[in-house]
Amino acid sequence: MTFRATVLTLYPEMFPGPLGVSLAGRALERGDALVETLQIRDFSVGRNRMVDDTPSGGGAGMVLRADVLARAVDHASPDDDARPRLLMSPRGRPLTQAFVRQLADGPGATIVCGRFEGVDERVIGGRGLIEVSIGDYILSGGEMAALVLLDAVIRLLPGVMGNAQSGETESFETGLLEHPHYTRPAEWEGRTIPPVLTSGDHGAVARWRKAEAERITRERRPDLLGLALKP
Ligand code: SAH
Predict the structure, then answer these.
(1) Separation CA 67–CA 214 (nearest Å)
(2) Into how many domains does the chain fold?
């Protein structure tokens, strides 16, 4: 099954962008994933092709119109489309590895990229858009957030990662941050590799990695262990 993403955007030229290289690039080339774009402006109204308007109640900026966006969503994602409809939004549910995995196991997604102040609230409810945030900061548009989400999903698709195992011990997959990595040379600027890693004792290596993952998670992200973050 091909994972199919339809991205609704005012800037389709931003896609596939960085998804065109390396792992994701090869996945797109092989057809394991499909990233298509839909220009929101093609669903605009009037001769001046308006897609946005001033916020009701006043204030700075512009708001993407519900009618224009809904027409684009309906075109991309008809009623019988099983793919979830996502809206990139700083108010959304935080993007987690668990959610990324859930998306990668599914048929794809329709992804709406906001711009300006955001989108008219009515289209979110009216079209059942699931708001997804990539972090607690404000981007100028949803496109880069969509690229982040798609990159995270595409690398999990079957056959995309060279070594299938390398996904499993990664940060967040185990509920922990990952252990440190080393490679040759054995000594670099006076720094050596922990001897256990070159001991050939696979059990000892596994125990060391687990202990390191736990230590680093405790130090940096106690919240992942259900502990409070230091203020
Ligand atoms: N006025 C809004 C921010 C609008 S930013 C607010 O204060 O909440 C413009 C667009 O960028 C948003 O509609 C959204 O699509 C995208 N965006 C900005 N920050 C984002 C984030 N952290 N995660 C996902 N999308 C984001």
Answers:
(1) 50
(2) 2
**Does residue 125 form part of some domain?**
yes
Q: What is the CA(185)–ligand 1 centre distance, in A?
A: 44
- pTM given for the model: 0.95
Distance from the alpha carbon of residue 155 to the mean position of ligand 1, in angstroms = 24
pLDDT tens column, 142-185: 999 999 999 999 999 999 987 665 667 788 888 999 999 999 99
Report yes or no: 91 and 52 within 8 Å, Cβ to Cβ: no
* 123, part of any domain: yes
**Please, is 156 exposed, middle or buried when counting C-beta atoms within 10 Å of its C-beta (0-12, 13-18, 19+)?**
middle
Q: Is 134 in the pocket of ligand 1 (CB under 6 A)?
A: yes
